[in-house]
Write a structure and sequence with these properties.
Shape: globular
Distance between the termini: 54 Å
Helix content: 10-25%
Structural class: alpha/beta
Number of strands: 19
Strand content: 35-45%
Number of domains: 2
C-alpha cells in the first residue's frame, strides 16, 4: 500500500460518524483498501494531472477563507438545504413540510428514515462493474458523516425545486468534506433537484461529492449539478443513476473553475422504455483542469439516450472528456446519441476527447461524434464588419457556442442565472454583456 493510501485509510478509519452508517462505511473503506488508486497508468486517469489530487489529499490542513461568495439564484422559489464544509446549516436552510416528500439529513433521520436510507444507499454504485466503479466514490462512503435524503412518494409531483447548496470555507481538512445526496423517486413521481457547489477557500480545499439518483417506474427527475469553484480547489464528484421502467432523467452538469475537477457520471438503464437526456458544459482558463467521464449503460430494450457536452478552453488550461455508451446484448431497439464539441480559444489550451460506442446488440440506432475547433475566421470577420471589436466578437461567438445548451434548461430563473454567470466568465465589460443579452 502506498504512503498516500495509508494516510487516506488511516484518516478514514479514525473518522467518526453516525453509528447506523458504520456497516456501509466499513464496506466502503474495504473497497478503498482493495481498489485501484488514481495513477497515470490507468486508462481513466492517463491524461489527468493526478499529482494535484495526490497533493491535496496528502495535505489535510485547513486553508484560509476568502470573502464570502454568494450562492443565491435570483427569483428561484425553491426549498433550500445548505451544508457548510459537509455539515448541515439549519439556519441557512428553508425547508417546508409537504405530503409525499421526505427531505431530511442523515443526522436527523428517524428510525424509519434510517431504514429507507440504508436500503438505497450504495444501490446505484453497486450497479457499476469494476471498470466504472471509481475509488473516490468509495472514499466518499468511507468518510461519510452526513448527507441528504430526498424521497418522493408514488404519484406525487413536487412543483418547487429542491436546491442543495454545498459551501466550502476552507475550514475543513483535506478529506472531511464528503457530501452525499440520495434521491429516490416512486412510481409516477416528479421532482427537480439543483446541486450547487460554491466555495471561498483560499487554499487547496478538497470536495469529494457523490449523488445517487434512483428513478422509479414512469417517474421524472430534473437534476442540475453546478460546480463553480475557486482556482485552488480540488473537486472530485460522481453522479450515479438507476432508471427503472419508463423512467426519465433530464440532467445538466456545469464544471467551472478549479485547479483539478473530476466528475464521473454513470447511468444504468435497468427498466424498459427509460429515457436519459443529459447535457453538460465545462469551461477552463489559466492552468485549470476539468475531467468529465460519462458512461451510459443500456441493459434493457427500448431505451433512449441523448448525451451532449460542450467545452471552451482558454490560456493553458486542459480538459478531458470520456463518453461511453455501452449497449448490452439484451438491449435491443436502443436509440442513443453522443456529441462532444470543443472550442479552443488559445494555442496553449488542450482537450482530450474520446467518445465511445460499445455495442453488443444488432437492432439499435446509435451515433457519436466529437469536434475540436477554433473560432471561425469568417464569422469573426462578419461581426467585425458590423462595427463590433475583435475581442467583443470573440466573446460573443464563444458565448453563442454554449448558449444553445443553456436554453434547454427548463427552470427559467436557473437558466437566467447561469447565462449571467457564464457571461461574466468571458468578460467583465458591461458594454459587452449588453450585446450578449
Amino acid at each position: 500500500m502506498s504512503d498516500l493510501r495509508e494516510t487516506v485509510v488511516a484518516t478514514a478509519t479514525q473518522w467518526t460518524s453516525l453509528p447506523w452508517l458504520a456497516p456501509y462505511r466499513e464496506q466502503s473503506l474495504a473497497r478503498v483498501k482493495a481498489g485501484q488508486w488514481p495513477e497515470l497508468r490507468q486508462e481513466h486517469w492517463m491524461h489527468s494531472p493526478v499529482r494535484r489530487l495526490h497533493a491535496a489529499l496528502a495535505t489535510p490542513t485547513p486553508s484560509d477563507t476568502l470573502t464570502d461568495k454568494t450562492d443565491s439564484i435570483p427569483a428561484l422559489d425553491a426549498m433550500r438545504v445548505v451544508f457548510v464544509d459537509g455539515a448541515f446549516d439549519a439556519d441557512a436552510s428553508t425547508v417546508a413540510a409537504m405530503d409525499g416528500l421526505t427531505l431530511v439529513t442523515f443526522s436527523e433521520a428517524t428510525a424509519d428514515e434510517q431504514s429507507r436510507i440504508v436500503t438505497h444507499l450504495g444501490s446505484c454504485l453497486n450497479q457499476a462493474d469494476k471498470r466504472e466503479r471509481h475509488i473516490m466514490a468509495d472514499l466518499n462512503g468511507a468518510m461519510l458523516s452526513d448527507g441528504l435524503f430526498i424521497q418522493v412518494d408514488k404519484n406525487v409531483q413536487i412543483s418547487r425545486p429542491i436546491e442543495v447548496v454545498y459551501r466550502t470555507t476552507g475550514a475543513a481538512t483535506g478529506l472531511n468534506n464528503a457530501p452525499r445526496l440520495l434521491v429516490v423517486l416512486g412510481t409516477h413521481a416528479e421532482a427537480t433537484v439543483i446541486e450547487q457547489f460554491v466555495n471561498n477557500a483560499a487554499g487547496s480545499a478538497v470536495v469529494n461529492a457523490v449523488a445517487e439518483l434512483v428513478i422509479g417506474d414512469n417517474a421524472t427527475l430534473k437534476h442540475y449539478r453546478l460546480g463553480v469553484d475557486q482556482h485552488a480547489m480540488v473537486h472530485v464528484g460522481a453522479v450515479h443513476v438507476v432508471l427503472k421502467n419508463n423512467a426519465n432523467l433530464k440532467g445538466f452538469i456545469l464544471a467551472l473553475g478549479s485547479h483539478f475537477k473530476r466528475t464521473d457520471m454513470v447511468v444504468h438503464h435497468t427498466g424498459q422504455g427509460s429515457h436519459c437526456d443529459v447535457t453538460g458544459l465545462y469551461l477552463t482558463r489559466g492552468e485549470e483542469h476539468s475531467d468529465l467521464n460519462a458512461c451510459i449503460e443500456h441493459r434493457t430494450p427500448h431505451c433512449f439516450t441523448d448525451e451532449v457536452f460542450r467545452g471552451i478552453l482558454a490560456d493553458k488550461s486542459k480538459a478531458i472528456f470520456n463518453g461511453r455508451i455501452h449497449i448490452h446484448p439484451q438491449a435491443q431497439k436502443t436509440l442513443a446519441n453522443l456529441s462532444n464539441k470543443n472550442l479552443l480559444l488559445d494555442q496553449g489550451a488542450e482537450i482530450y476527447t474520446k467518445p465511445e460506442l460499445e455495442i453488443y446488440a444488432d437492432d439499435v440506432r446509435c451515433a457519436h461524434g466529437a469536434t475540436v475547433s477554433q473560432i471561425q475566421s469568417d464569422a469573426l470577420y462578419y461581426l467585425q464588419t458590423r462595427g463590433i471589436g475583435r475581442k467583443e466578437a470573440e466573446i460573443m461567438l464563444s458565448y453563442g457556442f454554449i448558449n444553445e445548451l443553456l436554453n434547454t434548461i427548463s427552470v427559467a430563473p436557473l437558466r437566467a442565472h447561469l447565462q449571467s454567470v457564464l457571461a461574466v466568465q468571458f468578460t467583465r465589460d458591461s458594454a459587452i454583456l449588453e450585446h450578449l443579452g
